[in-house]
Amino acid sequence: MSPDEARTAREPDDLLSESEALHERVRGFARASLGGTQGDERFEDLALEIAQYQARRIPGYARLVESRGVLLERFDSIVAVPTDVFRLTRVAAHAGEHDVASFHTSGTTAALSGKHHFRTLKTYEELSLAFGRRALTSVFGGQRVVVALAPPPSQAPHSSLGHMLSLFMNRWDGRALSVAPRGAVYDPESSGRWLGGSGGIDLEGLRRAALVALERQEPLLVLATSFALVAMLDGLAGALVPAPKRTIVMYTGGFKGRSREVKPEELRCEIARVFRIPEVQVMGEYGMTELTSQLYEATLPGGDLSAPKGVYLEPPWLRVIPVDPVSLKPVRFGEVGLAKIVDLGNVDSAVAILTQDLVRRVAIGQIEPGDEEPGRSLESGVELLGRRKGSPVRGCSLSFESWIVGAREGVA
Amino acid sequence: MSRPETRVRQLLIAAKKLADPRHPLGERLRRELPALTGLSAEGVEYALQHSFEVNASSAEVLELCQSVPQIDRAHVLLSANVFVAGLRAVALGLAASPKVFVRSSRREPLVVRLLEEASKGAFRVVDELVPLPGDHLWAYGSDDTLKSLRGELPAGVVLHPHGSGFGVAVYQVDAARLSPQAAAEALARDVGVFDQRGCLSPRLLVVQGPVELASELARRLARELSAFEARIPRGALSALEAADVTVYRDTMAYAGELHFAGKGCVGLDTRGERLMLAPVGRHMHVVHTANAPELLRGLEKDIAALGVDVSEELQRRLVQVLPKARVSGFGQMQRPRFDGPVDRRPARDGVPL
Predict the structure, then answer these.
(1) Which chain B residues are within 8 Å of A88, Cβ to Cβ?
(2) Mean pLDDT across chain A, nearest whole number?
(3) What ipTM does the predicted assembly reach?
(4) Which of A167, A314, A358, B91 is most deeply packed, by most CB within 10 A?
(5) Calpha distance A264→A286 (Å, rounded)
(6) Residue A6 has what pLDDT?
(7) Which residues, numbered 99 to 128 in chain B, qualify as contacts with chain A under a Cβ-Cβ cut-off of 8 Å?
(8) How remote is the C-alpha of B328 from its chain's centroid?
């Protein structure tokens, strides 16, 4: 146990009640904002309060704030936690004994994986469902068949993505995968709906699920990682999957060396061809283990959300601020910066994280004069431009990036 | 035909003109190198005085000549190395052949141009290398560059690739000869030269001992780096290098101990027993361990230099783990013997040098 962990282990009871109160306020903010009302809370104020709470409760965050010489008095002064920190130390206001879940980043066995610890999943689940519902189910209403090109949660118990997919599957489907599900037992681990694994993609299972949706005359929702979709395309070798016209495919993540790399526009086009659906029904999701909330593309006409292809929309309780990689100050609207992400859902970990993903804010509608404030406009979304490359060597020393991603445990 | 040792000796005599601040070539080198390298004027001078290998002994020159085969034509491809590296690279070429063709780094073409001039054409600087079957090519650059080069070379050309790497310093608390203060002073010099951009530059300090002593060493090193900077200012970092620093600094402030060191910093991983690397630009990552060889096992492709202040037994075990790394004491990591290629590691893509 590190000195920091020992300190948080002696937490007083008021930590938990303070945390719980913040969670309730975040959920209230989310409900109010999705309900079209501002409520009593301002995003900036709530984010600042959470950051102050974390600085009081987490010695590491307090040190970071102090090292940056800021006072945490304004929203702009909230210091973001680099995502690498999640790999090196515990990022939590509460002690490990209060963890109800720990999600791990994927990575090689040699590299340290990042861990995001949750004291409660109530906020995570409410926020994920609320915005996911808007992004993925607001057009084709009613019940639907949900499958995932991913291993079942029991095979990936520390995957935040697996947890989210499971959540969506249970809430938006939750019935046995048969033509007449009434009376049949729903198996949340059914191999018929978790169609990915070490053996590749279960193409026959995908066809069966699509057939069930067709016979039920329900929409089909396919949830998948990008590399699983590439594996699906490779496995199909040009063949089609008969599926409902109201099929939506949600893809997420990069390729991580697990499949050949395919450009997003090509992937979207190929997936649309396979299911014979319009490309606008193939939508990207952006999430990270270190976050509680997710962003989505919103290409489907008539949905609650709307944005052009390649533009990701934030939920009202999350804000992506492109920042200069050196000064960490917000760049001007439309300029490329590192994604500093303020996620109110991260009450017990890091309300602001600094990723190494390059992003740019883009206008969705008409920008009014005066809206061009740094990092944000009222009608705007985020373009994802890939991971920042480490500095190219000017000498013969190894690049920093080559190694920071390779940080590993030694054998004592 | 001249003997290899003679050719190398003549090159070193030529190089002394560059090292001489009163010689016109030396003056020009000092005038133009800061802009080309990003180093401060003081940093250029310090590197010329301490790491430009013009005073090699006869024994070293003989060893260097014996480290290469005798061939008809030698080619040298320089790319993005620290500026003094050209001297040894050309010397290796001349040790192997009287006919040496050199393509300099686009970013820093000056040193080899001036060496060519000072040596009165002992080798030729060319815009394009055209190696033929049977020729040998000594190539320096990033791993990606070397990988693509390997695919482009005609069959029969022998490649000697030298990729990127870094240095590691190991301090054994209960057996070190230097006090923590003396060790910090010496290491600060190793870190400061070339603003830490060399493949011998230490960027990781492994302390075999308790975290408290690792913390003390980190604090002292930070102070010594600040003092070094007061004498030898750090040059400018590129925007990307500076971004690496921002990530590292904030990460260590949260996850360990962060000690500011002038424009740089020293980070201590208080948990220990795991590895990370500081960015270039006079930074050091410090980690404590109970078993340094085990911590460094498997990194023979990355670690080009090993600075040690440890017992003989521990040094023996470290060399077993890193058999190709250059071994030296603290303060000597940037002054390797002039006895062959500075980098003795296997190529990072697995092909032996």
Answers:
(1) 251, 255-256, 269, 271, 274, 276
(2) 89
(3) 0.90
(4) B91
(5) 13
(6) 53
(7) 107
(8) 13
